[in-house]
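User: Can you model how 5,10-Methenyltetrahydrofolate sits in this protein?
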Amino acid sequence: MSAAEGSPRAQVLDGTATAKAIKAELAERVAVLRERGVVPGLGTVLVGDDPGSKAYVGGKHRDCAEVGIASIREDLPADATQADIEAAVERLNADPACTGYIVQLPLPKGIDTNRVLELVDPDKDADGLHPTNLGRLVLRVTEPVTSPLPCTPRGIIELLLRHGITLAGKHVVVVGRGTTVGRSIGLLLTRREHNATVTLTHTGTLDLAEHTRHADVVVAAAGVPGIITADLVRPGAIVLDVGVTRVVDGGTGRTRLAGDVDPGVAEVAAWVSPNPGGVGPMTRAMLLANVVDSAEAQAG
Ligand SMILES: Nc1nc(=O)c2c([nH]1)NC[C@@H]1CN(c3ccc(C(=O)N[C@@H](CCC(=O)O)C(=O)O)cc3)C=[N+]21
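Assistant: Here's the modeled complex, given as structure tokens:
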């Protein structure tokens, strides 16, 4: 049945509006902290001039200004050495005005990313990607410390909850095995507070459709434009489009962002997150939430 015949179209998981509401809540919490003399500060380490990375980092600083978080930039040239990058990390570790920070990924070729990420003070890790914090997530350590959670997984769950969708007992099929989303989201979803059942698939999965067709929720984070087509989705399922791939439009020669979810999915799914306007703004909002959470924890 086509949309023209009146088939129900999926409802929208509106990340832009949800992130806006979250930012308003965070602004209030920041105001309370500031009254107590505590100013949260987010730092960014950006290496090189990749247009995508520059745009993301710029967006993060605008977000900070909106909610009252101070921001600190370490912008390094494309030919920065491993030592230059490590020195920038050490400066942010030592700077009391910086309460949390991120190293924008990917770093240029030839840089040992894991070595850089391990140097980040785990207490200032706003991305939740430091081995200590990922390890605490695996080990389910929540006391006496609360570690930052990876921003995109936290944002996906928050987006669902704020649309009235709970996950207990549901089958979530994750497509993609990257560290920031695929590998870490299952650790969050299988916590007792969410209680989902999780299948992790990836581009090496033999029969992807066999898995995704059984999903109540599909998290599409493979970075393969359009990999999730309507025939892979059970009618009434919930689909989150996490992929961000820059593609050159054959016709116009302009670059645009392509998600992992084919537009036809909206004809079968009950809920779809748009891309842009879905998981991206939520990721940014959760970065701010991690900074405010840790500033509150540090303030006691
Ligand atoms: N250390 C680190 N942490 C990250 O969180 C991180 C990273 N490195 N490297 C790259 C990816 C990608 N990422 C996005 C965040 C927001 C949008 C976003 O807000 N996008 C807008 C559209 C933006 C546009 O149109 O250019 C939207 O979806 O509506 C997109 C992508 C964070 N990442």
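A couple of observations from the model: Residues 15-35 form the longest helix (21 residues). The chain has two domains: 37-127, 151-279.
User: Helpful, thanks.
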